[in-house]
Amino acid sequence: MLTALKNVIDLFNASIPTTRTGKAETKQITKQLADLFNANDAILAKFDLLIEVVRLTQPEFYSAYKGIRKIINTGTGSLALTAYITDLTTGEGIKGAKVTFVPQKEELTGIDAQIEANLVKTTADKGNFYIKSMADGTYTATVVKTGYKKQVINVAVASGDLTKLRVQLEKN
Predict the structure, then answer these.
(1) In a domain, 156, yes or no
(2) Which end of the chain has a smaller Cβ tally under 10 Å, C or N?
């Protein structure tokens, strides 16, 4: 019986992976994923070139494809924009202020204009909010809160830079 128990314990111990084996497997899987992502990027780049062929003959399809293929680079977790909305007289943060960001792209028409979505954020208890990633460009930001005058300002967002939006609202 003791021999049988020892054999079962040995089999159990042999089935438990060691830490080193787990790290090696993780490294191998990570490399395989990176290879698959690179292969996917190469295929998409070729497809993007093929889509250029139909640019003039099928402009609606081309515009829809380009709108869907927009890539937002989230970087390494850094923020794109921080906002702080305060009361003009007291300087305290305003909770519940709604900020709508609309991209300034006058040249957009048709499907491109429909694809381009507005971003709406609401301030937290202390009058602030954060946005992790935004497409590069200039936005018209409209700030509204009941009991305060509406403000409209332009905001420029650049890749890799933190944009700080500070707005002081005046009471009605």
Answers:
(1) yes
(2) N
CATH code for the domain in which residue 130 is found: 2.60.40.1120
**Residue in 130, 137, 149, 33 with CA at minimum distance from that of residue 80:** 130
**Is residue 133 within 8 Å of residue 161, measured between CB atoms?**
no
Per-residue pLDDT of the chain (172 residues; tens, 9 = 90+): 889 899 999 988 887 766 666 667 778 888 898 999 899 888 888 888 888 888 888 888 888 888 787 665 544 456 789 999 999 999 999 999 999 999 987 544 444 444 456 889 999 999 999 998 888 888 999 999 999 999 999 998 887 788 999 999 999 9
| Same domain, residue pair 165 and 93 | yes
